[in-house]
Amino acid sequence: MPDVITRFAPSPTGFLHIGGARTALFNWLYARAKGGKFMLRIEDTDKARSTPDAMAAIVDGLDWLGLDHDGEIIYQSQRAERHGEIVHLLLQTGAAYRCYMTLEGVGTEREAARQEGRVFRSPWREHSKDEAPKDLPFVVRIKAPKEGETRINDEVQGEVIFANAELDDLILLRADGSPTYMLAVVVDDHDMQISHIIRGDDHLVNAARQSLIYQALDWEIPAFAHIPLIHGPDGKKLSKRHGALGVEAYRDMGYLPEAMRNYLVRLGWSFQDLEIASTEELLKVFDLDGINKAPSRLDFDKMASINAHYLHLADNARLAALVQEHIRQFRDWPLDSNAQTRLENAMEILKKRAKTISDLADQGYFLLRTRPIPLSGKVAKPLKGDALPRLLRLRDVLAKETDWTAETLGTRLQGFADEEEVGFGRVGQPLRAALTGGAPAPDLGASCALLGKEETLARIDDALAAKTD
């Protein structure tokens, strides 16, 4: 059995948001870096809020990020019988007790405890089994120690001390017989032999409460590592207005998984002056002592910059395929059988100015346009006046060109403008309108080269015909 076993245990009540993705990544990296296992557990005990779509979104998000898990997915809802067994054991040993208080009674007693500055504890804690009423609903609570301290030696936060007098007798089993989150997590982590629990620091107090359950069962407590949460660019708690989206949203915006892995790992973890690092490089140096104690801030400019770096490194055929996938999903643009070849041939030029797959789609659109390209409104404005006769003369010059390369064509276009004794814009704007119909494109020499001679001349002919009809 490997010494390190980590887990990612999301609740399937929504998408895999960016904070959860980072938590999963840290667990995955640590397990893989240490030669251990990374497990996936779906905590779906909340039947009212757990949905199949959310479960699928979580799994798809992890797959897209490349975070493969070991073994089968564990579904917490399928382990209710095991959870019940442990509650029964705790009752037998006296580490837990049945509480018959009504909801109203709990509310009244809790308020009284709050006003007196003490933690709420049920009066049923001290009752014997013989005093228990029959046929009345009850919950099962742990009998937490009233004195002493619970210490958490956290791999990120350091030693954190909780006074036991401040830890209440939390519920283990609800009145309907279903286990609570606190109990189920402990039992599942123990049975899955989890060695390290790496999660957000909003769970830090849960670590103390769960430690009491481990101690009551005489189980070994895993190592804890509580990660500071991600904040928005303004330093406030991350919310939807900051971009707390599901990872599928970043995929749809055109980010690459390897770029997201690099960005997310640097969002709260550091190693020397490392900024850009492949996953292979990260696996050589990742450790828990590199996790920062302070919250990190989401930085979309940095995210885009890292993504641009990985776009430039990516295989052109892969990028061309991703661009087409993006177009099919989000753009109403026709794609023919030659689209892959045209995009792939253009990719070295297109990706120099792109930060996302969406940018590549926008910049490659001119290559995919079907003829004749509509020329009206602002698009047609550069084709008025003396522009058409000049475009016709340029067409004759280009038709004679035999070296159809971006560099030669760029020189030829500038030479034509000089011969016409006009600024380059008087040549370039009409040509760009004819070739792209106003769509973004590289410089004109490169655009002509990417379109090819036949297509370039055909588009010019279309523009001339549209204006002379």
Low-confidence stretches: none
Radius of gyration: 32 Å
Content-based structural category: mainly alpha
The total of helices stands at 18
Look at the structure and give the mean pLDDT. Answer: 92
Major beta sheet, specifics?
3 strands, parallel
Beta percentage is 5-15%
What is the ordering of alpha helices and beta strands? EHEHEHEHEEEEHEHEEHHHEHHHHHHHHH
Q: What would you call the shape?
A: elongated
Report the span from N to C terminus: 79 Å
Number of extended strands: 12
Biggest sheet: strand arrangement: 1-2-3
Helix content: 40-55%
Produce a short descriptive summary.
With 469 residues, the protein is mainly alpha-helical. Helix content is 48%, strand content 10%.
Please name the defining characteristics of this protein.
mainly alpha; 3-stranded parallel beta sheet; 469 residues; 48% helix; 3-stranded antiparallel beta sheet; 12 strands
Task: Give an overview of the whole structure.
- This protein is mainly alpha-helical.
- It has helices at 18-33, 52-65, 80-93, 103-116, 181-191, 204-217, 247-253, 257-266, 279-285, 300-313, 316-330, 339-350, 357-368, 387-399, 406-420, 424-436, 444-451, 453-468, and strands at residues 5-8, 37-42, 74-75, 96-99, 139-142, 149-154, 158-163, 171-173, 196-200, 223-227, 230-231, 296-297.
- Strands 1-2-3 form a three-stranded parallel beta sheet.
- Strand 1, helix 1 (18-33) and strand 2 (37-42) form a beta-alpha-beta unit.
- The N and C termini lie far apart (79 Å).
